[in-house]
UniProtKB/TrEMBL annotation:
<dbReference type="GO" id="GO:0004197">
    <property type="term" value="F:cysteine-type endopeptidase activity"/>
</dbReference>
<dbReference type="GO" id="GO:0008270">
    <property type="term" value="F:zinc ion binding"/>
</dbReference>
<dbReference type="InterPro" id="IPR015917">
    <property type="entry name" value="Pept_C14A"/>
</dbReference>
<keyword id="KW-0863">Zinc-finger</keyword>
<feature type="domain" description="B box-type">
    <location>
        <begin position="8"/>
        <end position="49"/>
    </location>
</feature>
<comment type="similarity">
    <text>Belongs to the peptidase C14A family.</text>
</comment>
<keyword id="KW-0053">Apoptosis</keyword>
<dbReference type="InterPro" id="IPR000315">
    <property type="entry name" value="Znf_B-box"/>
</dbReference>
<dbReference type="Pfam" id="PF00656">
    <property type="entry name" value="Peptidase_C14"/>
</dbReference>
<protein>
    <submittedName>
        <fullName>Caspase-14 isoform X2</fullName>
    </submittedName>
</protein>
<keyword id="KW-0479">Metal-binding</keyword>
<dbReference type="InterPro" id="IPR011600">
    <property type="entry name" value="Pept_C14_caspase"/>
</dbReference>
<feature type="domain" description="Caspase family p20">
    <location>
        <begin position="76"/>
        <end position="183"/>
    </location>
</feature>
<dbReference type="GO" id="GO:0006915">
    <property type="term" value="P:apoptotic process"/>
</dbReference>
<dbReference type="InterPro" id="IPR002398">
    <property type="entry name" value="Pept_C14"/>
</dbReference>
<dbReference type="InterPro" id="IPR002138">
    <property type="entry name" value="Pept_C14_p10"/>
</dbReference>
<keyword id="KW-0645">Protease</keyword>
Amino acid sequence: MGGSEEMGAAQLCSSHGLPLKYFCKTDQLGVCAECIAGGLHREHPYLNMEEASKQCKVYDMSGERLALTLCVTSGRAGAEADIFALNQLFFRLGFLNRIIRDPTGEGFKRELLAFREWVESHVSFISCCFVVLMAHGRPGILIGSDGATVNLEQLFQAMNNQNCTALQGTPKIFLIQACRGEQQDPGIVYTTDALSHLSKVLPTHTDSLFIYPSQEGYVSYRSETDGSILIQKLVMVFLKGFCEFHILELLTKVIQEVSGINIPTRNQQQYKSTPLVQYTLRKLLYLKPSGMAA
């Protein structure tokens, strides 16, 4: 296919022997003018190599990809739809996904620590980890299937640079979908989730990305049949664009999709919801599996 993974002006294209003056965002490698003009990369987005060298450093995603989904399904109608959609996404993106249903409050911590041990036991290179947390909740906490609570910050800290050295410099994605409570009104089309307290992102959380269902102090919404708006839109956007766009571009589109929805309720009023993304990523993160054609 030509090109080289080195982003340097002195590098030559292996196919045409010309200087690599451009960086292909789709295939994440340097390409020459002939690669673009000849059609190999003509339809791909690309940047000038000098600009790419300064601004477009990317994470190495050639290693294993691991995911953990912890989801309380009891009393959370639509949760299975979210699990199904996320599992489809992880399969397409090449993630090995562990799914744990109905963890207790203590189980959230236990399963995350077991996941960390699994990560640290890997001999092969791990390029990315994705953790999904879905449950009822109150400010700053999740409620397990047994009614016991767990602090969100404790879960985040378990995977930070200090406590999980195997993932230092590795992108870590946390997706939180926390319910407000268990009461459901049969006249409401969408039930509500809430997360009124957002955990502070500490310096030890470098190379991390946190995706919340709503702005601080606001509810988020979950369809009792189709799943949560955030997760369903995220899966839709990622599946359409993961071959072309990096994750922050994808999440911008997710925010646009979610915030553009008018959410009907029993009293015929319509509400809005806007997800919140916080990150300490130091490079661009492309989720396209290595070797996959565009």
